[in-house]
Design a protein that fits this description.
With 323 residues, this protein is α+β, with helices and mostly antiparallel strands. The protein has helices at 8-27, 67-77, 90-102, 182-201, and strands at 5-6, 41-52, 82-89, 113-119, 131-137, 141-148, 159-165, 168-177, 205-211, 241-243, 278-283, 287-296, 312-322.
Length: 323
């Protein structure tokens, strides 16, 4: 579990309260003011881990071909606090719950994962079970919020799945997987951003990860990325969010590392290194320290080949959190 640290403002407030209490003790009870809420903040450092696992398309609903073990091993090796998965079959979700539980990753092994179906059961997908998105948390989760994104007319219904920490409800983690249907990319992106802004107005700190089926330098992303992100590879931004891989000068600065398994010339991104379509976002004014991310090659031991057409994205960020 991560250690929580009081900010300078919180420590100063506590010192003032302690001094005030000492003075009041000398003056007597008649001088005591009414009680006031603390209203402080703390900081915490989290590691986010995201992967579109192609659970049916490339792993054919298997729980034993190596994908589940590859995911669990990477989560453990990276000491992830939050995990988001896309295109995960329900059977694979259950297998990953069992694997992480057996590895003693969660603090509460009965309350650390949520699943939301996006492709219906009783079809040829996932052996007749649902395909969906999932969130996992090292610390116990509270009630999940489940949102349907604007409908693109496809059988797969895109969703946003968010859950707060049970003991720190102002910290929320969200997973999503946006459409590839061009006319609905921006409406779905706007919906997700608006929900995140709603959490923000409520005082929450939100970390969001997923496959957005868009690239950082696309115009559609301009009102998501912070205006502080202004490089030759990602400019014109007017939004309020940093992506955890947007500030590495060595990796297509402002755009980030590729998150696709195989780079092809027609989709090589602005630096020729491959497309980035998987993201981990945090609002700029919730970031309270260093942040960064890496794109990891997936295992090639899934039935003798690549486990997914996506690479794993993992990043770490220090954030401020309302107490």
């Amino acid at each position: 579990m991560r250690t929580w640290r009081a900010t300078k403002a919180t420590r100063a407030a506590r010192a003032v309260r302690a001094l005030s209490a000492a003075v009041l003790a000398l003056l007597g009870p008649a001088a005591a003011p009414s009680a006031a809420a603390d209203g402080g903040t703390s900081t915490a450092t989290y590691t986010v881990w995201q992967w579109n696992v192609a659970g049916d398309a490339m792993n054919h609903n298997s729980t034993t071909n190596g994908m589940v073990n590859a995911a669990a091993t990477s989560v453990l090796n990276r000491d992830a606090d939050f995990v988001a998965l896309n295109e995960l079959c329900a059977s694979q979700y259950r297998a990953l719950v069992d694997t992480l539980r057996a590895a003693h990753w969660p603090v509460d092994d009965a309350n650390f994962a949520r699943f939301e179906g996006t492709y219906p059961a009783k079809t040829a997908v996932c052996g007749g079970e649902e395909l969906g998105i999932a969130v996992f948390s090292k610390r116990p989760l509270g009630v999940a919020d489940r949102f349907a994104l604007p409908d693109d007319g496809k059988r797969e219904k895109r969703k946003l799945l968010c859950a707060g920490l049970k003991d720190q409800p102002h910290v929320k983690f969200c997973a999503t997987h946006l459409t590839y249907v061009d006319a609905y990319r921006k409406p779905q992106l706007d919906f997700v951003r608006d929900r995140l802004e709603g959490y923000y107005r409520a005082g929450d700190t939100v970390l969001t990860a997923g496959d957005f089926n868009m690239e950082p330098d696309w115009g559609r992303m301009d009102d998501v990325y912070s205006s502080a992100v202004n490089t030759p590879y990602n400019g014109r931004n007017t939004g309020h969010y940093h992506e955890l891989d947007d500030d590495d000068p060595a990796e297509c600065h402002g755009y980030g590392e590729s998150t696709v398994s195989t780079v092809v010339p027609e989709a090589a991104g602005p630096c020729g290194t491959g497309q980035k379509i998987d993201f981990a976002f945090v609002r700029e004014d919730r970031i309270a320290g260093a942040y960064g991310a890496d794109s990891l090659a997936p295992s090639t031991q899934c039935g003798g080949g690549l486990c997914s057409d996506h690479r794993i994205l993992t990043g770490t960020v220090t954030v401020s959190v309302k107490d």
